[in-house]
Amino acid sequence: MSLDGAYERDNIFAKIVRGEIPAARIGEDEKTLAFMDAFPQSRGHALVVHKTSRARNLLDVEQDELAEIMNTTQRVARAVRRALEPEGIMIAQFNGSAAGQTVFHLHVHIIPRWRDAPLGRHAGGAMGDMNELNALARQIAERLER
Ligand code: AMP
Q1: Does 122 qualify as catalytic in the annotation?
Q2: Cα torsion through 116, 122, 127, 128, rounded to 10
Q3: CATH number for the 12-141 domain, one of 3.30.428.10, 3.40.50.2300, 3.40.50.720, 3.40.50.300?
């Protein structure tokens, strides 16, 4: 998929937003949703999406929607820090398949990092254990602040 193209309403994140498929949900507000990446690159790898935007990537998105996504990204990254005490946090976002994007509904990755834990493969590693992902989502949710 190139940078251009139509938004696909049945992409996997749209289905998660609509509650049609399960996800380890961290929390949501009127505009955005945070949930655990199902194929985590590190312990605590989370994703933030907009619930109503039809942007496929950063280049498509309305500026107010982008601000809403980034505000939530900061809130969730702070909660990840409080909950998991990583040594660093990587914020990542990919545009177009040539850049590594695999799901064409704009999203931001929050990837906690520890010096002695190598980064897992992007969108190619093992599926996380759902009980563990749900437990991490609860831990992070407990440390979310407004
Ligand atoms: P990207 O490659 O930047 O488009 O990121 C897509 C991300 O979605 C990858 O990190 C995948 O591991 C993750 N992913 C794929 N399917 C699911 C799913 N059903 N629930 C949660 N995360 C998913």
Answers
A1: no
A2: 40
A3: 3.30.428.10
